[in-house]
Amino acid sequence: MKALESVKDMLTTASYINTGVKERVVSSAAGAILIGMAIKDIKSPSVKTWVEMATGALLLARGISGFCPVNKMLGRDTSDKGEKELSQA
Question: Is the pTM of this model over 0.90?
């Protein structure tokens, strides 16, 4: 249980969240759609199927966690917290 609580704390800690709510919803929806498309084609998998599955999984993880490694590399923060910091500057 302690490990689960630790993961929950990490995912909800503001320092890890760098993606806004709207962006997270769109990312989660797109990821779920891509995973669904890949599952539909799983009987005859191709490279396209695996690319859809991997991309969908990454988008879904980004939407659920609120953390985007690309945003971090670019020094971007589109979360509500980041928008507030920009408006106060």
Answer: no
